[in-house]
Amino acid sequence: MLKVMLVDDEPFILEGLSVLIDWQEQGCQIVKKASNGKEAYDYLTENEVDMVFADIKMPVMTGIELMQAVREEGISDAYFVIVSGYNDFHYAQAALRYDALEYLLKPVGAEGILSVIDKVKNKIQTDVETVVNDYDVRKAYLTQNIMLLLAGRHKDKHTDYVKKNLHRYGDGDFRFVNICFGDIDALEEKSDDEVLAIKNNLYEKLKSVLGDNSDRLFADIPGYTDEYELSFIYSDDLGSEYDSDVNKYIERLSEAIKEPADEGNVVFLVGKRVEDLTRLSRSYSSAATLRPYRSFEAKKNIYIYEDDVQAADVSVPLCKEELDGLISGIELNDADKINKSVDALFDKVTGTDGISDRALSINTNYLLFRLLHLAVELDESINQEEVMLYVSDNALIKGSDRGSSLHLKQFGYEYAEYITSLRKNASKGIFHEIEKELAQNYAQNITLRDLSAKYYVNSSYLGQLFKKRYGISFKDYLSNIRIDEAASMLLKTDKKVTEIAEEVGYHDTDYFINRFIAIKGCTPSKYRKNENGTNH
Asked: How far apart are CA 512 and CA 489, in angstroms?
């Protein structure tokens, strides 16, 4: 309901205005009837009002003086309608000077009041849409600057923009946090629309919990998070109520979202602490190293780089001989050697109380380090984060307990196949076919896994090759095709934005608009208006 105040020194006019129309039916509520400008001024200092109908000539404080005081002191953003018996240009000019919405002459009729109400409703709707669009554009630009920080390709202007637009930015240390789903297999059985709905649901929950700090939450940083992840920029000032303890702060987030069963458990991967925003790329890289690491650990919801990876324990022996044998078996794609090496490793690290979690962690770190370098040695241009993503995806194998010898063996077989695909360089000749397929079928639900199965290339490796060839990820490549086609349709057809979104493969219009803004820099409607205006 719009809150309305009537101000006039004539009681019969006040009562007349209050019954001239059915205010309730028009979505309005008269919250105050004031007999002069000062009485109205005092009310506005303590209460919110959307619309003020004020006489121009009143004792104590006139309608013009009331409006001047309210505007200059920033007391209220209410829309003012001046009601006057004087058809005088100077009065009208003074009213306009202080941003009066309308100047009505007495006697005021019902039509005049109804017209003003419609005008206010339209302006409020326009203002809301402007705020939403401005926020979307600012968030898209903030995302672009964050991406440059993560890539280490930022300049001072990019850092300055982030500092200026990140809520509660302080001088404390920073961390990059990945927020991902623990049960990837369950999500992969769902459609893209179902996954998007689950992800959006989690995003909205976190936004609600974070409040004003939700501008630090990102649902889509192209090329830096996969379709099952969100990102968050943590700084010590956020955790001040917990003595800057990041673990306690993330625990609060984890408990507050109370995810439903169909989302599976939500996992937080917290990168290492960096002393300045310009070093955020280091925190991002360290968060990426937690992806494969968590795959070999007992399940938990929060992984922190310093606690789970960086911490050293010299009392735990490194089983280098057994690990080197395992790495050799993987490199040769020798299942028998993989089996024997894993058995020897577990014999070595198993104590009287069974497997030592700390011993397995230390040895796993060494194993992952060596496997990463094994892939890089075959192709120096391979993105290390992509290798770690592959390890994470394939280490979470169905049918075996994480941290068991069977789990490590199964992972060894998978990684051996991955190394074999790197050697074969199976990408030769397929990109022409993939380009044609995407150009023709971009609106369909095409995934990297689909293409990898069709062309017999490991999906993680194909993802790396996409980045090397096109400079962007597969998902961004597909998004660019879809958005370019949408842009063409906006200019060449009169179809609605929702129709175009569907036709290019987006079933969620809000998501389509966000992607359009991220790529084209403005909303679809603004793009259509600006480009058509330029063309004509």
From this structure: 14
Residues 6+ positions from 58 with CB-CB distance below 8 Å: 7, 8, 9, 35, 36, 37
Domain of 503, CATH number, reads 1.10.10.60
d(CA 83, CA 95): 10
| Angle CA 149–242–245, to nearest 5 | 50
- Compute the distance between CA of residue 384 and CA of residue 376 in angstroms, rounded to an integer: 8
Let me know if residue 306 belongs to a domain.
no
- Are 396 and 289 contained in the same domain? no
Q: Is 18 helix (H, G, I), strand (E, B) or coil?
A: helix
Confidence grade of residue 314 (pLDDT, cut at 50, 70, 90): very low
DSSP letters for 211-227: GGGGGGEES--TTTS-T
Residue 132 maps to a domain: no
CA distance linking residue 270 with residue 235, whole number of Å: 11
Tell me, yes or no, whether 119 lies in a domain.
no
Residue range of the domain that includes 385:
320-424
Which residues are within 8 A (CB) of 304 and not within 5 positions of it... i.e. 6 or more apart?
246, 247, 270
- Specify which residues 235 forms β-bridges with: 174
| pTM of the full structure | 0.50
13-41 pLDDT, tens digit per residue, is 888 888 899 999 999 999 999 999 999 99
Q: How many residues does the chain have?
A: 536
Cα 171 to Cα 85, 257, 274, 278, distances in angstroms: 59, 28, 11, 12
Say whether 530 sits in a helix, a strand or coil. helix
Q: How many other C-beta atoms lie within 10 A of the C-beta of residue 494? A: 8
d(CA 236, CA 175) in angstroms, rounded, equals 9
Q: Residue 311 phi/psi, 5° resolution?
A: -60, 130
Q: What residues are paired with 229 via a beta bridge?
A: 180
